[in-house]
Amino acid sequence: MKYRLISPLAPPIGRALLLCLPLLLSTGCTTPKMLNMSSADDVRRLDLKLSSAISEPKPHSDQYTSALVRLGSLMEIYKGVKSKPIYVQTKSVGDATGLSAPLIGAELPGDITEMVRSAINNIGSLVVYTPFHPEYVVAHAQQGVNMNVTVPDILVTGAITQFDRSVVSAGKSRDVGFLFGAGRGETTGTGTQKSSSTISKLGLDFNVVDFKTQTMIPRVQAVNLMSVINESTEGAIDFSIIGNGIGMSSSARQMQGRHQAVRSLVEISVIQLIGRYTSLPYWRILPDTEVDEVVLDRLRRAFSEQTPRDQVAWIQNTVKDFGEHVEESGQMDTATARAVLDVFSRLDLPEPTKIVSADVFVSLFINVPLPSRLTVFKKT
Q1: Which of these, 123, 189, 250, 338, could form a disulfide with 127 (CB 3.0-4.6 Å)?
Q2: What number of helices (H) and strands (E) belong to the chain?
Q3: Residue 73: which of 373, 328, 319 has the closest Cα?
Q4: What is the pLDDT of residue 33?
Q5: pLDDT at 161 over 60
Q6: 346 and 203 in one domain?
Q7: Global pTM?
Q8: Residue 27 has pLDDT above 60, yes or no
Q9: With contact defined as beta carbons under 8 Å apart, do 16 and 242 qualify?
Q10: Average pLDDT, integer, range 178-185
């Protein structure tokens, strides 16, 4: 057999050359075609590679973007398609942390007003955004154009208020090495692997101002935080025989986009703001969202401020949404009491001790049946 032709007494250097021969051949051989290639060929190949790697543009969509549309449908179900829309306006929404300054590195966007406008305008026909461009209106008025200006119901104010960089960090490192054949074909090898992760906190604050009174509406606000993760990994392998070796290293880094995080925070904040302002159970159209006590409290207060007759009418109107056949008379009768108890039984809720109460109304209101398209969440 051919391997016997290699004498076991061959000098160590000869064996080392034989072991390294494949490496030398793989790195030193060059075809005539490769020698004739110019830098222009390299440019064309690189351009082709980059062109194929660029993805086609597509509309922005995630779970909160679709939830804005579902919020519009939720408003139509609870308030009616033909109800009066809410007219919304915003002040300039920017960065209050100072980290958007170019001298610091422009880590955050300096102005997110357009993101807020897009989120509000995505809800639907029952929430209408009213721009404020006085210079534009005045310029056209001077040309004789008759323009009607819509006065908003509410004004949304807010800013990026928090960015805590690297509040949590962790790292790992692994090293391995070996050495054998000292004196005759000395062989060494090393390997390293490192990984690290850091988490930063990004936060936004939003408030709602009553436009007519220019006062903030108590508790109708949104303060939301998001974690932004930065991960990196590194690895290297080295192998050598009598000074001739080969090495390989790699590194990777993944950092969640801060601008994308800001957009997601804007969208969830707008959903929360409009949900609280309209006293609607907006959490039903969001995945993994808890019941909002602010909405429940506003519903209880609104019910308690009604006359006894209107309170009964509100309960009668709500049980009708569950398919119960009751007359909206404002008078408490046996049919209404029976309908409330029937709905509570279907919802698996404890039987109420008093039919006409704020807690009964709230329990009915936040559980009104919704189409499956509003409560079945799909990952995008």
Answers
A1: 123
A2: 12, 7
A3: 373
A4: 53
A5: yes
A6: no
A7: 0.75
A8: no
A9: yes
A10: 65
* Own/partner long-range contacts of 19-23 (Cβ < 8 Å, ≥24 apart): 19/185, 19/241, 20/241, 20/244, 23/244, 23/246
Asked if pLDDT for residue 47 goes beyond 50, the answer is yes
Paired tokens of 315: 């309960």
Identity at 252, one-letter amino acid code: A
Which pair of tokens denotes residue 358?
Answer: 């704020």
Note whether residue 9 is domain-resident.
no
CA torsion sign, 295 to 300 to 305 to 310?
Answer: positive
What mean pLDDT is predicted for residues 233-254? 69
Q: Which of 30-34, 106-110, 303-307, 360-364 has the lowest mean pLDDT?
A: 30-34
**3-state secondary structure labels for all residues of 270-311:** HHHHHHHHCCCCHHHHCCCCCCCHHHHHHHHHHHHCCCHHHH
Is 205 in the same domain as 255? yes
Residue 251 is part of which domain span? 63-290
Q: What are phi and psi of 245, to 5 degrees?
A: -145, 175
> How many residues are given for the chain?
380
Report the distance separating Cα 21 and Cα 342, nearest Å. 86
AA identity, residue 325: H
Element (H, E) at 237: strand 215-241
Q: Are residues 176 and 260 in the same domain?
A: yes
Q: Is 214 in the same domain as 351?
A: no
- CA 157 to chain centroid: 20
Q: Alpha helices of 29-166 — where are they, by DSSP H?
A: 32-36, 39-53, 63-79, 113-121, 134-142
User: H-type helices in 54-184, by residue range?
Assistant: 63-79, 113-121, 134-142
Structure letter (DSSP) for residue 5: G
d(CA 142, CA 140) in angstroms, rounded, equals 5
